[in-house]
Design a protein that fits this description.
It contains 6 helices and 7 strands, in the order αββαβαβαβαββα. By secondary structure, it is α/β, with parallel strands linked by helices. The chain has a 7-stranded mixed β-sheet, with helices on both faces. It starts with 11 loop residues before the first helix and ends with a helix.
């Protein structure tokens, strides 16, 4: 279901910037990978928190493409320091569907405050709770930051779990040349499960970690099946 509630008026220059980002992401994903989305659940009809692993910088354009296919326009939680390296201009990041946050307690507080306001206004929020690119291995509870669990517990919003596999072969930080591989490796995204947050942050954190690991395992299983067919 398309989520239209809570979208503020957006200035033309921001609408144009988002259109360029969508077009660029679609082109990048199409030329760099054989992208496969498996949407095995029905999307919630209320604002939700979308959770996904972070295996390479390629997850960013792939994420934009994925949300476009799911017909969802969430606020993407991004690193504020990294965003400031890209642009020093004063921007209305919310109008660009971005929610910049710092690391640490201050950033977690800002995420919870801004994320709560967005969810109450009918806007979904998308988070990669590892907070950084993890190049190998699967999701582990100790590797996830607690901001997503905190936000989910405070708001009670449904948590949509996404798994992915294959993006680690593309566009690792500092290795942009891997983005241009002629092999076009398969990349799988699985919209896996909707979970209801627990009543305390620790239990929600454990639940998210467990289901995110299961989603990533399912994505790797589907990736292996695709590779066998090739």
């Amino acid at each position: 279901m398309s989520q239209v509630m809570g979208r503020p008026h957006v200035a033309p220059r921001y609408r144009a910037a988002k259109a360029v980002a969508r077009a660029t992401s679609s082109f990048a994903v199409r030329i760099a990978a054989k992208y496969h989305l498996f949407n095995i659940i029905e999307q919630p009809d209320v604002a939700a928190i979308y959770i996904a692993p972070h295996r390479s910088m390629f997850d960013l354009p792939a994420g934009i493409v994925t949300f476009g296919k799911l017909d969802v326009t969430p606020l993407l939680v991004v690193s504020k320091p990294h965003l400031e390296k890209i642009s020093t201009r004063q921007c209305d990041w919310n109008s660009l569907d971005l929610l910049p946050v710092d690391a640490g307690a201050g950033g977690r507080s800002a995420l919870v405050d801004s994320g709560t306001a967005a969810l109450h206004a009918g806007r979904s929020v998308a988070i990669m709770p590892e907070g950084r690119v993890v190049r190998s291995g699967y999701v582990h509870r100790d590797g996830l930051r607690t901001g997503a669990a905190h936000l989910a517990t405070v708001t009670g919003a449904p948590v949509v779990i996404l798994g992915s596999a294959g993006s680690e072969a593309l566009w690792q930080r500092g290795k942009l040349t891997t983005f241009g591989s002629l092999r076009r490796p398969p990349v799988v995204v699985v919209c896996f499960e909707i979970v209801v947050p627990a009543t305390d942050i620790s239990s929600t954190h454990e639940l998210i970690s467990d289901r995110l690991a299961a989603a990533e395992s399912e994505a790797h299983r589907r990736l292996a099946t695709l590779q066998v067919r090739v």
